[in-house]
Specification:
CATH architecture of the largest domain: 3-Layer(aba) Sandwich
Strand content: 15-25%
Keywords: NAD, Oxidoreductase
Helix content: 40-55%
Low-confidence stretches: none
CATH class of the largest domain: Alpha Beta
CATH topology of the largest domain: Aldehyde Dehydrogenase, Chain A, domain 1
Radius of gyration: 25 Å
Number of helices: 15
GO molecular function, one term: aldehyde dehydrogenase (NAD+) activity
GO biological process, one term: aldehyde metabolic process
Distance between the termini: 53 Å
Family: Belongs to the aldehyde dehydrogenase family.
Structural class: alpha/beta
Protein name: Aldehyde dehydrogenase
Shape: globular
Mean pLDDT: 95
């Protein structure tokens, strides 16, 4: 691949490594996004019918914050870190050097097509790498703006965009990149991992899964309902960390459902399909898949659809069991199954039978409940008494575990993801410790004392 070879040569020239080059590139990226911000908003509206408010909050503003945070701290992150000297290594000094990987590949998804292409790119630039960005073909208008922004800011030998469908992705994955960062579905993530294994390429997989919400009997119900409605139905549920389903304690189920209905109508109106700011489903294929779930359980609220505009109203299903299709895969749409429980042990057992989710959201006022759930359920990350917010801070790593992903990013964690931590030990020449050599009398005795 021609552009890969160009980037390989550019990286070998050493131009991406200096601090000033990285800082300048981050500023160029931010300035280019700002210049094209109206086009980004328009493209997101054309592809997904996102409102300007939602586009700025979830796709654009978060990037400005991430770039500013990275610029502020990058110099410190790049400094080699000193480590302690072990007793067996007297006379040595150890340091850890953050070393760029080289030529990196970033494959972005369609649900947050702008933010999830640019956020990893911030880490790749901060780490001193070159990068090829592959936007999603399902959001073509956003892909065009991404290419325009990157072309205006960078030479292709440094940062480039490669557009296309599955054939282009296959071609890219057959190329021996130094690092791959993929965001998308579990099924495609498996393909990426398989391709990466052929070149033993290190990689990050940001996937998804069925992220549970838990509303305990002592929760602040009205607030829990509003925050769950917001987290579930933002972007029409097409969010990898959206609460996929909710377990509600049986003693508060009826009150919770009343508050949830009120919250949906407050946020999206009584007729969401006529709301001009309500996000559309990305494609006919995804629309058809989602509408099949509406036959499961009991329709408690919503259920209206419009195939012409690919919209599905915020929907709540009750009387749900795990053997129903809606519980067999990540929903990734505006459909919320609500299940009930009597005891924490019951739902902990239920949730841990499933693949490890990307997120978990617990609503409770009790420290015991909080610590029990955190300790006994494995998941990528999450919130207590909120949804989604944990991914918007640069101070927390964001990523999955098991089938929900591998690796993490945001803030310094993005820098760490796109750098290899190279260990260097500097040995003294002022003296030599003879005990390590095999010809020393009583050497084994002293080695055992020092190394026990």
């Amino acid at each position: 691949m021609h552009i890969y070879n160009q980037q390989k040569s550019y990286y070998k020239s050493g131009q991406t490594r200096p601090l000033q080059h990285r800082l300048a590139a981050l500023n160029y990226l931010k300035d280019s996004i700002k210049r094209h911000e109206p086009e980004v908003i328009m493209a997101l509206h054309q592809d997904l019918n996102k409102s300007e408010f939602e586009s700025y909050m979830t796709e654009i503003g978060i990037l400005y914050s991430e770039i500013d945070y990275t610029i502020k701290h990058l110099k410190k992150w790049m400094i080699p870190k000193k480590v302690k000297t072990a007793l067996t290594h007297v006379g040595t000094k150890g340091k850890i050097y953050p070393d760029p990987y080289g030529v990196t590949l970033i494959i972005a998804p369609w649900n947050y097509p702008f933010q999830l292409a640019m956020a990893p790119l911030i880490g790749a630039i901060a780490g001193g790498n070159t990068a090829i960005v592959k936007p999603s073909e399902l959001t073509p208008h956003t892909a065009e703006v991404i290419e325009k922004i990157i072309t205006d800011a960078f030479i292709p030998e440094f940062i480039a965009v490669k557009q296309g469908g599955v054939d282009v992705s296959q071609q890219l994955l057959d190329t021996p990149f130094d690092y791959i960062f993929f965001t998308g579905s579990v099924n495609v993530g498996k393909i990426v991992m398989e391709k990466a294994s052929k070149h033993l390429t290190p990689h990050t997989l940001e996937l998804g899964g069925k992220s549970p919400g838990i509303v305990h009997e002592d929760a602040s119900l009205k607030l829990a309902a509003k925050r769950i409605a917001w987290g579930k139905f933002i972007n029409a549920g097409q969010t990898c960390v959206a609460p996929d389903y909710v377990y509600v304690h049986q003693d508060v189920k009826d009150d919770f459902l009343t508050y949830l209905t009120d919250a949906i109508e407050e946020l999206y109106s009584h007729q969401p399909l006529e709301n001009p700011d309500y996000t559309h489903i990305v494609s006919d294929k995804h629309f058809d898949r989602l509408t099949h779930f509406l036959d499961d359980g009991t329709l408690f609220y919503g259920g209206d659809t419009n195939k012409e505009t690919r919209t599905i109203a915020p929907t709540v299903l009750t009387d749900i069991t795990w053997d129903m299709p809606v519980m067999a895969e990540e929903i990734f749409g505006p459909i919320l199954p609500v299940l009930t429980y009597e005891s924490l042990d019951f739902i902990i057992d239920d949730i841990t039978k499933q693949p490890k989710p990307l997120a978990l959201y617990l609503f409770t006022e009790t420290a015991y409940t909080r610590e029990k759930v955190i300790a006994e359920i494995p998941f990528g990350g999450g919130c207590i008494n909120d949804t989604i917010y944990h991914l918007a801070t640069p101070h927390l790593p964001f990523g999955g575990v098991g089938q929900s992903g591998t690796g993490n990013y945001h803030g310094k964690f993005s820098f760490d993801t796109f750098t290899h931590h190279k260990s260097i030990l500097k040995q003294t020449t002022m003296f030599d410790v003879p005990l390590r050599y095999p010809n020393q009398k009583a050497g084994l005795k002293w080695v055992k004392i020092l190394m026990k």
